[in-house]
Amino acid sequence: MNQKLLIFVLILIVGISGFSQGMLLPIIAIIFESDGISSSLNGFHAASLYIGILLISPFMEAPLRKYGYKPLILFGGITVILSLALFPVWKSFWFWFLLRFFIGVGDHTLHFATQTWITAISPIAKRGRNLAIYGLFFSLGFTVGPLMTKLLEINQSLPFIITSIISLLTWLTVFLIRNELPERDDSANTSLLGTFKRFTKVSRIAWIAFLLPFTFGVLEASLNSNFPVFALRSGIDLTAVSIIIPAFSGGALLTQIPIGMLSDRYGRRRTLLFIVFSGFSIFTLAGIYSHSVIGLFFCFMLGGMMVGSTFSLGISYMADLLPRNLLPAGNLLCSIFYSLGSIGGPFFGGLVIEHIQGGNFFYMISIMLFLVFIALILFKEKMPASSM
Fold it and tell me: Are 131 and 122 in contact (CB under 8 A)?
């Protein structure tokens, strides 16, 4: 199979997945806010996507090993498309909660298959670059998605209809590629118990790598969910907030591929030590300049440039540490830890904002990054022969 075509299709699919997620978060939040639904219920509703990811994760490995990558991508894509198309059918809090849950299931199935496929076909010398491109396309889609909010002025159903059509057209490109199966493992027990046993084995070998998608989940969710509340309570106006928040994503887009390539050349661990310590320093400065719009803008930009690659680098590092037959379980755990960070970040960030004054919201982030930095120093690295 033409590997360039395969990678192109996979990153195109994940880009549109990012676009649909980026559209969904603000669209539903705005609709619910205009309907007078409380911010706590709004936040609870947003968590349904991550609940879907967490619940489906243990059941993903067996069908991947049995049927291969392509059927899972097709299933995940059609689940997302149908769920998006059903939003205009009935406007109901719980019906939309269920649809969001199924989008979490579909998106995770799609991400798990594409992510595992890319890590499996990427040689170690190009793994960081390939996964950085993968992460870049998701981030681009996630950044462009919120622009669909403008369509709400025309009709509330329009963003869902247009996104489902775009997703369908992209989904059709999967038929251009041939199916493949993951690395064969004759000793693998494909039952749920077997999956949990592999989770335990993978965690013993590569636990350090899972801290990185967890960190990115905390950062992405808390900066988007908690920072607006923190900023408004600190006297920073909404216009400034709308400029500061995208600076993190913008910074990540600038350096995603260069950092991935640097990790290929100088080693994943060395690169991670540098960017995580840089992130710790930057968010400590954000705490000091927490009332300065200009200071926060540059801290968000620099923070994105440094730690905006932690998800893709975490996957690359996980793939370096594990033998190829354990990559499906490793990719699942990366997604699970990302989801846990996405759920836990806003919760703990909200507690800090509620009960502690000043720039302590940013100190919470910097302390987390410092602890990950210490963990990276203490971790005893041992590469499997199959990844060399």
Answer: yes
CA dist., res. 300 & res. 247, Å (int): 6
> How confident is the model over 295-308, as pLDDT tens digits?
999 999 999 999 99
Helix, strand, or coil here: 384?
coil
| Contact partners, residue 281, CB within 8 Å, separation at least 6 | 366
pLDDT tens digits for 335-362?
A: 889 888 888 887 788 778 777 766 678 9
Residue 106 has pLDDT above 90, yes or no: yes
DSSP state of 386: G
Give 200-208's long-range contacts (Cβ < 8 A, gap of 24+). 201/326, 201/329, 202/322, 202/326, 202/329, 202/330, 202/333, 203/333, 205/321, 205/322, 205/326, 205/382, 206/317, 206/318, 206/321, 206/322, 206/330, 208/317, 208/321, 208/375, 208/376, 208/379
